[in-house]
Specification:
The chain is 33% helix and 19% strand. By secondary structure, the chain is of the alpha/beta class.
Length: 339
């Protein structure tokens, strides 16, 4: 009788909490499969955006049932991620990979992935796709408990990986990865190579803006509204929102309070429908709170693919892209005439 584990053996196993929301894991899987490697993704059945359990379970995944949570910043979410991390590594054992590719966050995945590597001597790549708690919009940062413990789950284990990938250069500076004696690379968010979007501007005097993606506590709602108010003094405007999130009501109510015309579309997964909306817009809005530690957002990559210049306040990689390639406007102070 053949060994059950040997039947399931994979050369590469990818672990992520967010495969349903972020296509990065699938691009990594495709990369290895094109090179003839048997590859599997281990992920959670809980959809972070929307906070519900997924019903579709595509082939090529091993889904682990996760504990649900309601709030993005909560003990329940940290506990859910911790339990997922532990269970994910138990599942990894069944596949005996030569290479374990782990996407961080959850920070706890770094801890359990390193434990697995030490027991099996497999190769380990940690791909840092976001920084928590560094991106919290509260001033205490990561220096006090329990935030120090949270960041420590990641930081104390980085040097034990075989290689580190970051989704922007900024993360390498924040985490001081230059002191680690190992291969470190930046791999930006991928995007499908769609045809260029036809600009279908309406024949009117309205300047149209697109906000794309999550509406959460780290986007600069007040800054976005202030900018739109200032531009509206000079010209008629509209804002189109494609996305959703826990601060959606606050965002839309503030826009209405200042009489900024807004069209809310919710999440749109049909790329043709998204192109239709984007083709009528002049700008994409890429603004987060100043305390957020991020160098490149998924929404900015989507704006670029859609052919939209961006209004950007994010430092690091995106700021440099805008400056070097003239693909938008970096804003510190509000400059409505320039917009």
């Amino acid at each position: 009788m053949q060994n059950y584990k040997n039947n399931k053996k994979k050369e590469v196993v990818i672990v992520t909490c967010f495969a349903a929301n972020e296509p990065r894991a699938e691009y990594v899987r495709d990369f290895f499969e094109r090179r003839g490697k048997s590859t599997l993704i281990i992920s959670t059945d809980f959809i972070h955006h929307g906070k519900f359990f997924r019903k579709d379970l595509p082939i090529g995944y091993d889904f682990i049932h996760a504990q649900p949570y309601k709030k993005n910043l909560s003990i329940a979410r940290l506990r859910s991620h911790y339990i997922f991390s532990k269970n994910a590594m138990e599942s990894v054992k069944e596949y005996q990979p030569e290479l374990l590719y782990v996407m961080i966050p959850a920070n706890s995945l770094a801890k359990f992935a390193v434990r697995y590597k030490e027991k099996t001597n497999c190769k380990l790549i940690l791909d840092i796709i976001d920084l928590w708690p560094e991106s919290l919009t509260i001033p205490i940062g990561k220096t006090i408990w329990p935030l120090s413990m949270w960041s420590g789950l990641r930081d104390k284990n980085l040097h034990l990986a075989d290689a580190i990938i970051t989704e922007c250069d900024l993360y390498q500076k924040v985490l001081r990865l230059d002191i680690l004696n190992m291969p470190i690379h930046t791999v930006y968010w991928p995007q499908e190579d769609y045809e260029n979007v036809f600009r279908a501007f309406r024949e009117d005097d309205v300047l149209r803006f697109l906000y794309l993606g999550s509406i959460n506590n780290i986007i600069d709602i007040e800054g976005i509204v202030k900018l739109l108010i200032e531009v509206q003094k000079l010209r008629k405007i509209e804002l189109h929102i494609v996305g959703d999130g826990e601060t959606r009501s606050k965002f839309i109510n503030l826009l209405k309070e200042y009489h900024v015309p807004v069209s809310f579309h919710g999440y749109i997964y049909d790329h043709d429908k998204l192109k239709e909306i984007a083709s009528q817009c002049h700008w994409g809005i890429n603004m987060m709170k100043p305390s957020v530690q991020v160098g490149l957002t998924m929404k900015s990559v989507s704006y670029f693919e859609l052919g939209l210049p961006i209004i950007n306040n994010i430092k690091g990689d995106t700021w440099e892209f805008v400056e070097n390639y003239k693909i938008g406007v970096n804003v510190v102070d509000i400059l409505p005439e320039k917009i």
